[in-house]
Amino acid sequence: MECHKCKSQGQSCGKPSQRLPFFRKSKQFLAKEVFSHPPIALVGMPNVGKSVLFNALTGIYVTVSNYPGTTVEVSRGLAQIGEQTITVVDTPGMYSLLPISEEEKVARDLLLIEPVAAVIHVVDAKNLGRMLPLTFQLIEARLPVILAVNMMDEAQRWGLDVRQDALEMELEIPVVCLAAALNQGIDELKHKIMPFVPVPSSSSGCVGKESIVNSQKL
Amino acid sequence: MTSQVIYPEPIEAAIAQLESWWQTLGERYLFANYSLSPRSLALLLLQKDPGLWQTLQRDQEQCRHLEVLITVTQNQLKQPIGLAIANTRQHQAHAIERAALQETRQARSSLTETLHQLTVNPITGFPILVVILYYGVYKFVGEFGAGELVDHIETFFESQINPLVNHITAQVIPWRPMQDLIANDYGIITLGIRYATAIVLPVVATYFLMFSLLEDSGYLPRLSLMLDRLFKSVGLSGRAVIPMVLGLGCDTMATIVTRTLETKRERLIATFLLSLAIPCAAQWGVIVGLLAQKPAALLFWGGFISAIFIVVGYLTAKLLPGNSGKFYMEVPPLRLPKLRNVLTKTWVRMKWYFLEVLPLFIWASVLIWVGRLTGIFDMIIRGIEPLIASLGMPTQAAPIFLYGFFRRDYGAAGLFDLQQQGSLTGNQLVVAAIVLTLFLPCIAQLQMLIKERGTKTTVAIVLFIFPFAFLMGYLVNFGLTLFGVQF
Residue B405 above 70 pLDDT? Predict the structure, then answer.
């Protein structure tokens, strides 16, 4: 639980986790060893393709529906980001940090309580203007946000193009354009997530031998 | 950070005041273990976030301080705080959108726009719905899935597997009751597995395929849009169409999805109607299959269940205090479904359903075996026989209603079995189908109902549904006999 405080300040989560055994009961620590890294959370309004992206990142098949309200609980899966395996959580759709329905509350409470390595805000390229207010809220909450502009294929069919660099400059956060359903842009997204994932060597004891191998490769 | 939104002066002042005040609080700062920044928490509190305010209740002084702060801030603003905050954000969002968005060409497909209008307008939308129901459900699920596929697999089971299983168990196991557990009329393989694979599986497979196609095309949200007004009359909003339509796939899943509804009242009405009048895929597939040879009977069943849905929904909405929720929903574009996605989806759902239902069917076989061995089963059947007889049903149908307690589709499958033997008349089929549809759903949904709505509500729903289902069956039978209708 130590991680809560350091999380909001940045990604320096590695060091406190070394001290975790002293603060936690040892049993709990053992059980959580592998997953002691804070996860990456996918958030966004309903129907922007969060679950599709979740499938693309984790390879787990969660039934994806073409209408809001079908993800009512948080699903978790593992994604390979560079050399690291990290937990990804898919959340129900939410319009704002101020929840209206029960499903929105699930997503908000996750952000409120759980430490996260990064928050990927998934937006629909066709409705950028309507979706950005949530990005602002995530930024002002000091969460480590990556903006994933999804459904680029459909936007292009509508005659719209999103200038990634302009968005990146205005928002001052990493931005990726993708079409998750067509598997386009997933690699670039993973690349942009990498800086947010704690380096294995600094969190020794979490992954054991493997982490040593990884750090040598790096 | 330049990307930070700057709010109107009074709000910024309030945020600054809160932030500096919290720093002086030390231990008494209530939000220490929250991941959001103080600025963000301040904004949420200014908008009266219910969750955070609940935490705030622990310290009366902080509560009062904040209330004063809100009043002061509000007095300096021309619009409500929440609106001022939202407007500032929206304004900046549009500015950024203008900077980042390039219009390459003016090319909104007019075909999809026309299609959208056609599906949403009730005048064209209802005929489209009817066409989809006719070809998608009646022809594909009813005639092809529940008709041909079931016939083939059933025949295969009855002629190849069952005799073989009966023969082998007779050879290997000398004790007759033990043989009955696995083989013969009610055995695990000859009844449980046969029901699951030969009757339920083809129906579920065809239904889920159909459903996934509709789902991926983006038709369902348009259906909600069109049905919004109809749903308002039963105290629900168009939003509730989603769980209802999902309920036609699986009521258990749909009960979970009622969480998307805004008010407690709406969630209650939706779960109640789901339990009462929405048959799940396996069940209505089998029922459609049963009644497919008699279109008039099928229409009567459909009409009757719809009427129950509307009348009971209307009365519940009248009885429960409160208003129906506002309706707003994202409407995704109409898309051409990708075959691969549709097939994966169907496959995943089928697998999930099959694995869910198979153990239950096996357990049902075991329970029936125990029940028969100990004589309890016969006792219960004798107990409900008069009830069944009052519905105008033959006494062989009594076990079906008993199975129906376990799972609706189990009962429906049993009915299917009886009909194949040709021992039911059209009227009896209709009555049985109606009672089984209205009947309390399967055990899985019952569990979900308890989890989502609590034990008290669940008991109330159950106590209403059981007598109601039988009463309706009785009335239908009485009415049909009175008017001399023969299906």
Answer: no
Strands A175-177 and A84-90: unpaired
Which chain B residues are closer than 8 Å to A47 by Cβ?
Answer: 330, 332
Residue A214 half-sphere exposure, CB side, CA atoms within 13 Å? Answer: 19
Contacts with A139 from chain B: Cβ below 8 Å: 1, 3-4
Shortest Cα distance from A207 to chain B (angstroms)?
25
Does A205 lie at the interface with B, CB-CB under 8 angstroms?
no
Instruction: Quote the Cα angle for A35-A36-A42, to 5°.
Output: 65
Q: Write the CB contacts of B268 (distance below 8 Å, at least 6 apart in sequence).
A: B320, B453, B457
CA A169/CA A202 separation, integer angstroms: 31
pLDDT value of residue A71: 61
Chain-chain contact of B51 with A105 (C-beta, under 8 angstroms): yes
Which of A4, A43, A52, A67 has the highest number of chain B CBs within 10 A, making it the mutation to test binding with B?
Answer: A67
Say how far apart CA B200 and CA B194 lie, in whole Å: 9
pLDDT band (50, 70, 90) for residue A106: confident
Instruction: For B119-163, write each residue's pLDDT tens digit.
Output: 888 888 889 988 988 888 778 887 888 778 888 888 888 888 888
- Contacts for B458-467 with beta carbons within 8 Å, 24 or more apart? B461/B271, B461/B272, B461/B275, B465/B275, B465/B276, B465/B438, B465/B439, B465/B440, B466/B439, B466/B440
ipTM of the complex: 0.73
